[in-house]
Amino acid sequence: MSGRLTRTSGSRPDLGRTGILLIEEYAVVRRGIRLLLDAEPDLEVCGGVSTLAEALDGTWDPTVVVHGLLLPDLTGPEVVARLCQRFPSASLVVLSRVDNPTYVHLAMTAGARGDVLKTSAPGVLIDAVRRVAAGGEYVEPSLGAALARWDGMPRRHHEDALFALTRREQEVLELLALGHTNAEVASSLGVALRTVESHRTHVMQKLGLKTRAELVRYAAERQRSERTNHRRE
Question: Rounded to an integer, what distance in angstroms lies between the CA atom of residue 23 and that of residue 87?
């Protein structure tokens, strides 16, 4: 399947190569993924950007879009929905930061065709891109197994609200899960203590938690669950 894309700067994929739009916040990571995919004779990254806005505004027509769910200007399944709307003929492959089945479920339900962990071996992403470009789906085996278990388990109502959190709120939640105090979180993120306290309050409201103790316990349980799922795989 050939790439159909281009950007205003003008690079077009060679005939017979799958055109890929890459959305990755960090330039070094983006460069590495681009080198990986461009090394394949049938794949070509014809554009790489760091935000959803850049992707939506460019003159792109990709066969595959490879992207994260935690972008600087938007997070969660809404990223997938917006990309599906902008690129209705493209197949989306999500690069996940954590092996959380909730994230996989929400991304695939929103319209993604593939889901791969950022910690995966390079060949996994290449395989995923080829699968979705050919019209199929690809979920990394460890993610697929975790998702299958998750589908059969009862869930608390706030688990599907994780992506209602902003990027910074998710960062605060992750740091709390690691046992950091509010002051330590503020120092780590380079923000005021009052800002962290405000983020924490918003997280609790969105997740339906009533006390700080519930929040810390919930965050710790998430971390333990993710580590357990990882060891099982």
Answer: 13
Picking from 121, 148, 175, the residue at the C-terminal end of a domain is: 148
Residue-wise pLDDT tens digits, 142-190:
666 656 655 544 444 445 566 667 778 888 887 776 677 888 888 888 8
- Domain hosting 212: range is 157-232
Domain count, the chain: 2
How far is residue 180's CA from residue 176's CA, in Å, rounded to a whole number? 5
β partners of residue 138: 114
Quote the pTM value: 0.65
CA distances from 201 to 165, 169, 174, 217, 232 (A): 11, 10, 15, 15, 34
For residue 168, which of 70, 52, 49, 69 has the smallest C-alpha distance?
A: 70
